[in-house]
Amino acid sequence: MNNLKVTIDGKSIEVPPGTTILQAARMIGENYPPAMCYYTPLKETGGKCRVCLVKVTQGSEANPRPMPKLVASCLTRVEHGMVIENETSPEVLEARKGVVEFLLINHPLDCPVCDQAGECDLQNLSYKHGTESTRYEEGRREFDKIDLGENIQLHMTRCILCYRCVYTADQLTNKRVHGVINRGDVSEISTYIQNAIDNDFSGNIIDVCPVGALTDKKYRFKQRVWFSKPFYAHRECDKCKGEAVAWVKNNDVIRVTARKNKFGEVLDFICNNCRFEHKNMNDWTIGEPYEMDNDSVITTNKYKVLDHSPAVNVDAKFVSE
Amino acid sequence: MSKKILLQHINVPGIHTLETYVAHGGYQSLKKAFSMSPDEVTEEVKKSGLRGRGGAGFPTGMKWSFLDKKSEKPRYLVCNADESEPGTFKDRYLMQHIPHALIEGMITSSYALGARTSYIYVRGEMMNVIQILEKAIQESYKAGYLGNNILGSNYSLDLYVHPGGGAYICGEETALLESLEGKRGNPRNKPPFPAVWGLYGCPTVVNNVETIADVPWIVNNGGEAYAAIGVGKSTGTKLISACGNINKPGVYEIELGVTVEDFIYSDQYCGGIPNGKKLKAVVAGGSSVPILPAELILRTINGEPRLMTYESLSDGGFVSGTMLGSGGFIVYDEDQCIVRNLWNFTRFYHHESCGQCSPCREGTGWMEKVLHRIEYGHGKMSDIDLLVDIAKKIEGKTICPLGEAAAWPVASAIRHFRHEFEEHVRNPESCCKRHLHRSMELVH
Amino acid sequence: MSILSSNTIQEITKLKSRYPDDRQKSALLPALHLAQAEQGWLPVQAMDEVAEVLDIQPIEVYEVATFYTMFHVKKVGKFVIEVCRTGPCCTVGAEEFVQYMEEKLNIKVGETTEDGLITLKTVECLAACGTGPVLQIGPEYIYQENMTKKKFDDLIEELKIKGLKDV
Q: What's the predicted TM-score (pTM) here?
């Protein structure tokens, strides 16, 4: 089939049939819509957070009528001749501001004590699309912290119910033990009964979490992310590809995560053995500083120039083997 | 007397049994339908101009024609009997009294759609209705109207009743399908629509009880005869469930086109307002549709008498009109407090939000809290515009229409009764007297 | 040792035939109704047993049971009285009626009487708006319509006798 021409904020691109508006916008590469729930590596994600809403001003060449409502760009497939407004539409920006406000009214805004700060999608989203103050005066909902086994902590108060962790468990493991219970604004991620999420790939729910709801217990409060240095790291592993990021401070690996693309999506899920059990520099073949290309507080260029900083001693033994 | 299609025999003793139902012309439509091709049946439904009676008013024949007939997968007809819209109780009434009307409609409609298995999704609270339907289905199997090779037609159908579990959102057709699959009632993102990707990923039509029960009459008498009843594009009859401050609450079958004034004041219908009170406002089509003050529900902004039709009730758009919706007709007399009523409805939507998408999950609760504050004497003038803005930021941004259903009552109540909200803010003392009791407050 | 009776397990197994072979999870809501009708509520073990019969993970049952308001995942009284609190019923006195129920039972909405006989709950619209105030009592869920104080007094007496008989 022929490629489809789509125009987003005045920029045109040709994409294969089946491409969504969000994917097309990401191909164009700038000012693409944000996405808090959609996650390319996980099937069935998307449509829930509503931050990626865009305006379709022309449905297609064959049927040029505009779509009556804003649409979720992560799920709406492009048609040939479709014209879309994202950041050029005041209506879209206003709606997005509204969604950010909704996401924040019950969020504890506890960034100063949250491990996710610095690599939090909600934090980045609020900087870009939120307002300075809130109109919300009522009490915020709170949940107790829950240990999901020895490696993962659930801080439900911060959750935005993107469902990514549920899909991760469904698609990476054969026995899901956590899910979404209750309904409405008291819905929560839970195992319902006291239960550890215990399988070889459970740690990935930390990486897919866009906020600080699921955190690495072995890393909690060890360090602000921006004070540690990420490096490409590799080890031979029989469970996963062993391709990870080692977060290093004072010659110690203080945390291991999966590698992500520029949209914050995991490239290859890693196993718990790599993530939680290998914290020695000698466990890993350490490579180049890890490139990060998103809007986060910590960006790739900063680390490139920090290669020779005294905090990290990048000498030959890092790349020995 | 108005033409009766559904309730003609409602007062016949024993009409809930198959024997009596058949004696009064029941199940005639099967033979007629089997003598036609499925597409011919669909064509008659199209000609009838029948529109979905669940609330949206979408043309039924057109919905049927969207069904993906190229697919190799089985097709399903699912009846939406999850009647939960506040003010609406017509489907329960019909199923309870004339269960075979729905079953007959399910058979002829399933035949038209080529479904071999069909389900009636009844809200779980109506256990009584579920038992009545189960019994009626057994009777129908025994009489050979269900099962293999119905009346020698080579057409076979299995029909099952499926209970819900207590969730308004399952009245939304894709949430209903999720629920029928044994999952949480989270509405699906659309497209794809159920006609292409419905129950178990198969082509599916979801229709309301009343809609399906109208089909046998259309098959028996022809689409044109049905279209001759009513006014313009509002063809046929409609069940209206009337409640609130009226002398004769109940379910009425009206020919579409009766005037609203007649419906409220005539002894044939609601019989007027009790105790000589004045009419204050009406919610004409279930709690989700905009509320209108007395002068606008009786006459359009141009002074025309308002009719009980899809078009007349929506005359004036959202500025001065409303919608026929599900036919849940709620009448408020002069003593009713608009603020308290709105808080109550908003609490309902907050309680019933599935929680899947952020504007509805967070916005409905926020609106309820602000309204609670105003009703209980702690409101600020700025809260009124805050409510309007929250409603605006929910409307059109959600996965399913519950967003609109929660936003429209807020927007319309403030549009038409702003002075009452302001009065609550200015004189908290007077409204504090309305604190009937604590337990009706927000409970979660 | 299972807590659901073999009869209930059998009923649930029978329900599965209503749905396609690979879609037996569909029987979950009717199965939970059966389990609750037998147990009075849904303890974890009952939900786990339903999961086993339907060959699904226990979490899939918890997710569903906690979504729908009819399922009691916490222990409740022998009889659960659920009274409508939504707008149309309130235009005909539901708020005052609920207040009376609380006084009569000497409990608040959401609580259970000391003798464990009655739990009082408010619910949203029951589709009986023309005959409000309305309440229902599980597991039969027969609607009690056009409620008055007198009718409620009689109902409570009836439940007290019924409660004694069943013990």
A: 0.94
